[in-house]
UniProtKB/TrEMBL annotation:
One annotated GO biological process: methylation
All residue ranges annotated as the Methyltransferase type domain in the record: 52-139
Domain of life of the organism encoding this protein: Bacteria
Name of this chain's protein: Class I SAM-dependent methyltransferase
Natural source organism: Actinoplanes aureus
């Protein structure tokens, strides 16, 4: 393993745009949920007439689908990801639409029979229900409650458990309030292993909401402590949390 400073320098100069975690190959692992979201989405998309993928990141999930519907639209709010998605998807006829987080969706009522999202930031249930056709489906994989909290709390200290973000039952209640019928809701926790401190820096630069205001300078002491811990005891273990979510508009 490289020395602490070398790992830090490598991770701070790595490209963190898009939603591809290939940089972590050999440096971190994460179990996958058992339901195979990307495979299920690839099965559903060819049967749709018009589909919308929200918070698409760099478009990696949609780019991996062999057959797309006649109208395929994706939205993304972060400009570097918008440009990456355009490069990946526009050659296949996909519409890439920049939409700021929390802004109304710039689509007509009932424009889509399938709306999807892998790890949406904050599902706007009213807008999702509005752009779905009657009988249309929202199919998504959400981040679940207390995801990666072991790592987050290493930097921030203990966090309250009584008010966890991304509670699937609260999300289901919000979906129902918007007029959707929830037909599938399943949450799992998946083991993560981080093999060096560079992997940690890369993740915290990419998932900026985990440790708000993260910088190497601000957390250098904790990073050095974590580096020593990994060298002595092996990988840092955390657990991601994922929810499979499916809802239908009546």
């Amino acid at each position: 393993m490289r020395d602490f400073q070398g790992l830090i320098e490598e991770a701070t100069t790595a490209d963190v745009s898009g939603w591809d975690f290939g940089w972590l190959d050999g440096r971190a692992t994460e179990e996958r949920p058992p339901w195979g979201y990307a495979r299920q989405l690839a099965d559903r998309l060819p049967r749709a007439e018009a589909a919308l993928d929200l918070d698409t990141g760099g478009g990696e999930i949609i780019a991996g689908v062999p057959e797309l519907p006649s109208r395929m639209v994706v939205t993304e709010g972060w400009q570097p990801n918008v440009e990456r998605a355009r490069r990946l998807l526009e050659p296949r006829g996909v519409e890439v639409v920049p939409v700021e987080q929390g802004a109304p969706l710039p689509f007509a009522d009932g424009a889509f029979d399938l709306v999807s999202s892998r790890h949406p930031v904050a599902p706007a249930w009213g807008e999702i229900a509005r752009v779905l056709r009657s009988g249309g489906t929202y199919f998504a994989q959400h981040v679940g409650p207390a995801s990666a909290y072991e790592l987050i709390e290493f930097f921030l200290g203990p966090l309250p458990r009584e008010d966890l973000d991304r509670d699937p039952h609260r999300e289901a209640a919000a979906a129902r309030a918007a007029g959707l019928e929830v037909v599938a809701l399943r949450t799992v926790r998946c083991r993560m292993e981080l093999f060096d401190v560079g992997a940690v820096v890369y993740l915290l630069r990419k998932c900026v909401w985990w440790v708000p205001g993260f910088s190497v300078e601000r957390y250098r002491d904790r990073l050095a402590e974590l580096d020593a811990r990994i060298r002595e005891h092996g990988p840092f273990v955390a657990h991601s949390s994922r929810t499979l979510f499916e809802a239908v508009k009546g």
